Amino acid sequence: MRSVIYYYSFSGNTRSVAETIAEFLLSKGDVILRRLKPVDEPGNFFIQALQAKRRACPKLLEESFDVTDYDLIVCGTPVWAFSPAPAVNTLLQKIQGIENKSVILFTTFGSGVGNKRCLEYMKETVSVKKPKEIQLFTIAGKRTKDKDYVFSQFKRLWPNG
Ligand SMILES: Cc1cc2nc3c(=O)[nH]c(=O)nc-3n(C[C@H](O)[C@H](O)[C@H](O)COP(=O)(O)O)c2cc1C
Questions:
Q1: Per-residue DSSP letters for 43-76?
Q2: Which of 47, 106, 134, 143 shows the greatest Cβ crowding within 10 Å of its Cβ?
């Protein structure tokens, strides 16, 4: 199985989860980890939240959004103002070749308020592109560095372990 993991991370939580998922998926085949980064990235909380709330789609340094070569596409984001981080909006808009593929969308979050809404929004956005299946996965920010925990939670998505 060939997998690609796209993720955005500002302070490292989502990155930790993406890396743990990559380790898990390595046992199933090839894995590529792609970090999404806006060309122009605000560091201010209020601007970040405002852009996320407006569902902004910034230009990214990453320009490869064609997933035709992969069987599984994983995409992770921190929850920002009940929404994906803007970099992930760009990916979800531009991604190509996702038809009939398996997709896993994941979030990391702080308080958890808006987490469900964020995942549902991501799911709706990707559904339009007709993947075979979409699974959702989430990890609380404070548990993202607990590799064993993340590993065990992710493993649950595999019916046969
Ligand atoms: C601008 C901003 C907005 C946020 N909004 C939410 C939110 O609506 N709900 C929530 O549970 N956590 C929220 N958080 C917390 C992050 O989702 C959480 O800390 C996440 O794990 C950070 O991931 P990262 O370290 O990969 O950037 C917000 C954080 C930031 C910086």
A1: --HHHHHHHHHTT----BS----B-TT-SEEEEE
A2: 106
Enumerate the domain spans of the chain.
Answer: 2-155
144 Cα: distance to centroid of ligand 1 (angstroms)? 12
The per-residue pLDDT for 64 is: 83
pLDDT tens track for 54-76: 999 999 997 789 999 999 999 99
Closest CA to 124 of 93, 156, 158: 93
Higher pLDDT, 160 or 86: 86
Which tokens sit at 33? 């980890």
Q: Measured in angstroms, how far is the CA atom of residue 66 from the centroid of ligand 1?
A: 27
161 pLDDT band (50/70/90 cuts)?
low
Protein residue with its CA nearest to atom 2 in ligand 1: 80
pTM of the model: 0.97
